[in-house]
Amino acid sequence: MCGSTTRLVSSYSEVGDHERAVVWLGEGIELAIRTEDPEGIVPQLSAVRRTSLAALGRDVDELARQADGFVARWRDRDSRANVSHAGEWLAAPEVGEEPPGGGGVAVAMAWFPACEYEKAIARWESLAEDWAAVTHVDYCRGMDGHIKWLRGHGVHMRAVAPIVVDEFVNWCEDRGENPEKARAGYAAECYRLGGAIDWPPGRNDPCWCGSHRKYKKCCGLAQAAAMHSGPVA
Hints:
Distance between the termini: 18 Å
Shape: globular
């Protein structure tokens, strides 16, 4: 499903090519379902595909219903097993909610800045399993590659939402949320309140990761690749 094309900063649905978006997103959904959706992206892909179906004046089809059923089973399984997926890093507004700046369904990705990364790994075992042996630089580049992959397959990725561990823990306590499962909700709220970092930056702009290097010489070097159960270099 991953393409080698450089046309990854703009999805078909974003530029109004809804016919092609429906096809690409459909392929992405089918593959994710066949592989048990290790990135947890079916909810986002399905939401964006529904937007394109609606733009074409089409009703919800069999694949959309299949995705709904898969998501319901996936969430029930996670609820019973308390499993954390890479998809918990993603957050999309409710279907029909207009993201900042307009343009349809958008997605933000939760991210730990350098000063918070080690603190998060030390606090949460689920993060340590995937990232304890990974430098912050490689973590950021893996995330950038995953964002490119998602955006190239129709997910309207717009921002990276930084998580400050202590603030996040307080936010979870105030709402009775489990921090192991609440990163997506926190990222969504950060995005709605304007606290997220726009993605992608310009090639010559400072990288979003805070390295103070130009994006093209930092995380912009990352190739599009999906994160599965672990990091992507």
